[in-house]
Write a structure and sequence with these properties.
With 525 residues, the chain is α/β, with parallel strands linked by helices. It folds into four domains: 111 residues, NAD(P)-binding Rossmann-like Domain (Rossmann fold); 179 residues, Rossmann fold; 128 residues, 60s Ribosomal Protein L30, Chain: A (2-Layer Sandwich), CATH 3.30.1330; 75 residues, 2-Layer Sandwich (Alpha-Beta Plaits), CATH 3.30.70. It has a seven-stranded parallel β-sheet with strand order 8-7-6-9-10-11-12, sandwiched between helices. Strands 14-13-15-16-17-18 form a six-stranded mixed β-sheet, covered by helices on one side. Helix 5 crosses helix 7. The radius of gyration is 31 Å and the shape is elongated. The two termini are 28 Å apart. Bound molecules: nicotinamide-adenine-dinucleotide and (2R)-2-hydroxypentanedioic acid. InterPro entries: ACT-like_dom_sf, ACT_dom, ASB_dom_sf, D-2-hydroxyacid_DH, D-isomer_2_OHA_DH_cat_dom, D-isomer_DH_CS, D-isomer_DH_CS1, D-isomer_DH_NAD-bd. It holds the Pfam family 2-Hacid_dh. GO terms for molecular function: NAD binding; phosphoglycerate dehydrogenase activity.
């Protein structure tokens, strides 16, 4: 039975789902060293934001197939290391959107009305009505940095509070911003005009210290900043200085450069509200993300695709549904052409034809590469690492698309150059979904792939088929089907044979000695 390690606390519903297919060990609070010790025995790892999945942990996870992040941000996982190891990384892109957006809004309102301090004051038996004069958010400018899932929900609710939304997001169109009732502006204007600024961007090289000394200098002295996205997007030292000097009015932070927050002057400031990374901490969100991620882990352990993999290019559920029958075709053709070309390929041309000549069909290129590398890497190559492995092996992959159709509505043509020269194959699907090899080295054929295959390039002349049949018979090899393809009578031709048995040693060289045979190849599919 598969084994799953759950290294942060997740909703029990997630454990229930995983238990349908695996032994589940919930072990929270482990150090990196402790995880490295035990991870080799696990097929899957599920976590939230407390576990840091380092390169060392990934590399120690020799059986790991999938790492599931019960939440959005995967910045606590070394995704490139996982990709290299062929480990799928999945997340829950939407499970905690509402929770995080509501937390940001709660932070904004708490800041504007001094709720945390007022609460403490009353609990300390005081009645300080004059000390806690607030500001209204009505008719104020809210600067939303990052108009994705969370940012858009914050914007929608804030609009209903009567706020004007200034949004900055270089990847969002003006039409989308208009739809959301937001004014798309540049960062300079957002910083200069906003009364509240809320951050909803991922942590990237571009967003690291997006708010720092220089940018704070451009803001209103009355501005209040809210960060419920990621620590490090605000330069904490610069923020502390601005809050201490009164350069800005306040800040509310749910995320920090170091988590848990260590020694910090932030704790001493009265114009700051701090929460311990609670954005996703609602009952509803925790159920959502646990179900979302546990289901994906369960599916992958059952050999099914994951719906929110962050490191498998283009394999969204819709695309997957459409391409599913062709993925096996592309992989089989890749495997076939690599064996014909003799392995050690330095180039692979992938031509997607007919209805496959669309942008969405990119996963078929990955499937073809996976097939091409499968002889060399066996189960080590998968949809996650195929492209990287090809690049590292110096295989040049060229994709072309040709929308014209011939006999089949969609077909895949591959040409590879390897130690045995350049060879090409074309494959298509029958309406029943069965695979057909329809072309070999530009010769038309029509054969199903089978476990043991023999291909010859020979001169089209009387008796040659009989000689090959007799030779195979003398070695007790049974022929399941046979086809010859040629372009002109008595010119060059190819023969494709499906065999019930593998070719015994020495037989291939006997075949190549038959007069008229120019070349012969055995293939195992
Ligand atoms: N505090 C929490 O507990 C909590 C919970 C959930 C999500 N988060 C974090 O909130 C953030 C937003 O999550 P989401 O689900 O809305 O993500 P999302 O991907 O839907 O939206 C992010 C948006 O940021 C934009 N963006 C990227 N780079 C940008 C840049 N340099 N400048 C401006 N915009 C940029 C993107 O175009 C996108 O629209 C993430 O960092 C996520 O990890 C935190
Ligand atoms: O697991 C959590 O509580 C935090 C999740 C949040 O930061 C996320 O990125 O989804």
């Amino acid at each position: 039975m598969a084994k799953v390690l759950v290294s942060d606390s997740i909703d029990p519903v997630g454990v229930e789902i995983l238990s349908q297919v695996a032994q589940v060990d919930v072990k929270t609070g482990l150090s990196a060293e402790e995880i490295i010790q035990i991870i080799p025995e696990y097929d899957a790892l599920m976590l939230r934001s407390s576990t840091r999945v380092t390169k060392e942990i990934v590399e120690a996870g020799s059986k790991l197939q999938i790492i599931g992040r019960a939440g959005v941000g995967v910045d606590n996982i070394d995704v490139p290391a996982a990709t290299r190891q062929g480990i799928i990384v999945v997340n829950s892109p939407e499970g905690n959107t509402i929770a995080a957006a509501e937390h940001a809004l709660a932070m904004m309102l708490s800041l504007s009305r001094h709720i945390p301090d007022a609460n403490q004051s009353v609990k300390a038996n005081k009645w300080e009505r004059n000390r806690f004069i607030g500001t209204e958010v009505y008719k104020k400018n809210l600067g939303v940095v990052g108009l994705g899932k969370i940012g858009s929900h914050v914007a929608a609710v804030a609009r209903s509070l009567g706020m004007k939304i200034l949004a900055y997001d270089p990847f969002i169109s003006k039409e989308r911003a208009d739809q959301l009732g937001c004014t798309l502006v540049d960062l300079e204007l957002l910083f200069a005009e906003s009364d509240f600024i809320t951050l909803h961007v991922p942590k990237t090289a571009e967003t690291q210290h997006l708010i720092g000394r220089e940018t704070i200098a451009k803001m209103k002295p009355t501005v209040r900043i809210i960060n419920c996205s990621r620590g490090g997007i605000i330069d904490e030292l610069a923020l502390i200085e601005a809050l201490e000097s009164g350069r800005i009015a306040g800040a509310a932070l749910d995320v920090f450069e170091q988590e848990p927050l260590g020694e910090s002057r932030l704790r001493e400031l009265s114009n700051v509200i701090l929460t311990p990374h609670l954005g996703a901490s609602t009952t509803e969100a925790q159920v959502n993300v646990a179900i979302d991620v546990a289901e994906q882990i369960r599916d992958v352990l059952l050999g099914l695709p994951a719906r929110s993999a962050v490191n498998i290019p283009g394999l969204t559920p819709d695309v997957m549904e459409k391409l599913r029958p062709y993925l096996q075709l592309a992989e089989t053709m890749g495997n076939l052409v690599s064996q014909l070309a003799g392995g050690r390929c330095d180039s692979l041309n992938v031509r997607l034809q007919g209805e496959l000549a669309t942008k969405d069909s990119q996963p078929l290129v990955i499937a073809a590469i996976k097939g091409l590398l499968s002889q060399a890497l066996r189960e080590r190559v998968n949809y996650v690492n195929a492209a990287i492995e090809a690049k590292e092996r110096g295989i040049r992959v060229i994709e072309t698309r040709d929308a014209s159709t011939r006999d089949y509505s969609g077909s895949i043509h591959l040409e590879a150059n390897g130690s045995m020269g350049t060879h090409s194959v074309t494959g298509a699907l029958l309406s029943t979904g069965e695979i057909r090899i329809t072309d070999l080295d530009e010769f038309p054929i029509n054969v199903p792939p089978s476990n043991h295959m023999l291909f010859t390039l020979h001169q089209d002349m009387p008796g040659i088929i009989g000689k090959i049949g007799a030779l195979l018979g003398s070695f007790n090899v049974n022929i399941a089907s046979m086809q010859v393809g040629r372009k002109i009578i008595r010119g060059d031709a190819v023969m494709a044979l499906s065999l019930d048995d593998p070719l015994p040693e020495g037989l291939l060289s006997e075949i190549t000695k038959v007069p008229g045979i120019r070349d012969a190849y055995t293939v195992k599919l």
